[in-house]
Amino acid sequence: MDLAATILLNGLTLAALYFIVASGFSLIFGLMRVVNMAHGSLYLIAGYVGYAVFEPLYDQDLWWAWYAGLGAGIAAAAVSGALMQKLLLGWMQGQELRQALVTIGVSIIAADQLLAFYGGTPRQFFAPDAIFGSTQVPLVGGYPTFRLVQIGIAVVVGVGLWLLLNRTKLGMMIRAGVDDREMLGACGVNVPLVGVAVFALGAALCGIGGIVGSTAQPLAMGQDGRFLLISLVVVIVGGMGSVTGTAVGAVLVGLAEQLGQALFPTYSVILTFVIMVAVLALRPQGILGRA
Q: Quick check: helix, strand or coil at residue 145?
């Protein structure tokens, strides 16, 4: 029971991180139909820029160092995403292959520049004292408090994103643009501006994931590819453009990964792709995706 509880909690905290990162990808890929293969690069950009702000403040023992790093990482990711949409992807709407090739090129360039500027040494944030240490959890014992906070952050992100898409005027425009961009433009809406705003929002969510993930585990080169792949799997399993589906997909993938590492570590990654293949075979649009 103790082992099962630990695996379950590890899976949920990992799923929370996957959901935060994949929710931004779902917003961009699922709703805007933009194939952003540089989504993982936004994770790295947020992490390294945030760390550059965090490190000198932490050395001065300032309590708000982590929060400053979080704000800087989110801003860096959002600005990078907005520029990518405005300068590169805005005129490629509906050209999925071209979008994929261009964003792959952007991801390669971004990774090389970050490596040249920051080096290959892994970095890691330290959580503020208020969310540092351990918390007693039934059946598990002492468990890192920050990992529990991850779940809370994911819940806040999920609820906020659902309210944005379903209860605000911007959400109405986003959903209308998915079905009929021409009609939305004919109604007087600045569709390109909405696209930039949505892309910036999706990038900012990835930025949150970059700081949160770099606090729970070291930030290192190569994680851009990992989180891009995870985001793809989560969105495919849950359903493109569905916040609830993204959450379901993240939970399934997180639990499968932790269960695999506990039972057969060498082949744990297979479980994730078995889930994806099964969903694609039985429900190609995803568990909660639209046909």
A: helix
